[in-house]
Amino acid sequence: SSTLMAGGPAAALALMVTPATAAPVIVTSGADAGPGSFRAAVDAANLHPSIDVIRFTRDLGTVQLASTVVYTGAQSLRIEGRDTAIAGDGLFDLLVSTSGGDLTLRQIGFRDGLNGIVVEVPADAEGEHSTALFDVTVENNGEYGLLIDDETNGGVTRSDVPPHSRGRPVAHTA
Questions:
Q1: Which of 16, 93, 70 is nearest to 26 (CA)?
Q2: Is the model's pTM score more than 0.90?
Q3: Is 116 in contact with 110 (CB distance < 8 Å)?
Q4: Burial class (CB within 10 angstroms; exposed 0-12, middle 13-18, buried 19+) of 44
Q5: Residue ranges of the alpha helices (H) in 31-97?
């Protein structure tokens, strides 16, 4: 099986992605941005709908973010952290998904964000949207560990995952 490394110019990345299915994007750097970073991997998934898996290398440690990482791709996305921690400075959300596709997180931690994980279900979404957390730790986040905004009735559906807890699977019907 082949792998696709995150980072590099978008044009070079486009040549390596096949329309049918892409290999997982591999995060090899603990840096906030640049080749091999989590941000570059999510940017690649935003640009290429065939990318549906982001996988961290083992023993990467902590990725210290300088700003929010935003997933906007329409496809479902699985992020396999392999015990990596995503950290901030408490002033911004760590991971925001606005795609409407299912989001699955495995073996990853989110700490020291305003919110750890934010899922914004589009107002025009129909059916079920799944956000699944397996062996996910959220801790020391200022407001919520997991915040689901379903944009219905002008309100926000806040999850029952507080700022300091172990994640459990969550399903949301729009």
A1: 16
A2: no
A3: yes
A4: buried
A5: 38-47
In sequence order, what are the beta bridge partners of 97?
A: 71, 119
Is 49 exposed, middle or buried, given 0-12, 13-18 or 19+ CB atoms closer than 10 A? middle
At residue 66's C-alpha, the angle toward residues 64 and 69, to 5°, is 90
Q: In Å, what is the CA distance from 136 to each residue of 14, 29, 50, 59, 168?
A: 31, 20, 25, 16, 8
Per-residue pLDDT of 30-77, as tens digits, reads: 999 999 999 999 999 999 999 999 999 999 999 999 999 999 999 999
Cα Rg, the chain, nearest whole Å: 15
**Do 66 and 39 meet the contact criterion of CB atoms below 8 Å apart?**
no
Six-digit token string for 91: 């002033």
